[in-house]
Every structure is written in structure tokens, then in C-alpha cells.
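Translate sequence into C-alpha cells.
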Amino acid sequence: MPDRERKIDRLSREQTEAFLRRSSITYLECCVSLMLTHMSQEEVAAILDQEARMVRDLG
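Result follows.
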């Protein structure tokens, strides 16, 4: 039974991670869409570039 429990734990963790990844991407897409409703594409792209640089600098 311990092997089965470990498999269930692993599957649960993997599915949780996949859900969080999909949800995060969907949220980001919604944020970008909202930004585009009142900002130009160039402004949005510049902001996203700046944010991407900040993320890269963290790593």
C-alpha cells in the first residue's frame, strides 16, 4: 500500500502544479487583455518587457 500512496501523492502534486500553471497563464492573459483595453500595444509591450527583465534578474 505505501507504493500506491506515494503514486497518489505524486499524481496529486503533478495535477496541482499543472492546474496552477494553467491558471496563472490564464490570469496573465486576462491582465494583458485588460491593459489593452486602455493602453496602446506599444505601451503594454514595453511594460511586459520591463516585467520580464525584472523576472530574469531575480534568477
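Note: The helical segments are 2-36, 41-58.
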